[in-house]
Predict the structure.
Amino acid sequence: QVQLVESGGGLVQTGGSLRLSCAASRSIITINAMGWYRQAPGKERELVATITRGGGTNSADSVKGRFTISRDNGKNTVYLQMNSLKPEDTAVYFCYAYYLGYEYWGPGTQVTVSS
């Protein structure tokens, strides 16, 4: 089982930056994949970025060149560096882990980008 806790959300102006953190309850080198999803009001949850145990990354076209996912194995933490934020990035951001065939989710952190 994996518990995930996100932090780092908040209110930022257009063009600003935020860094989200996701702390896992177990060593992340044992977790197949981790990542970030987001859900805006009235919309479905969508993929933002993922990172595998081997370090491979994938991200949505809408955030390519602006968001970077990374991991610190020593701290059991995955990060999402978000730059050049836009109002359309406003959403609740959820940390995700895929471990031994199961999906785990954090409670989410709100990111609001003002225009």
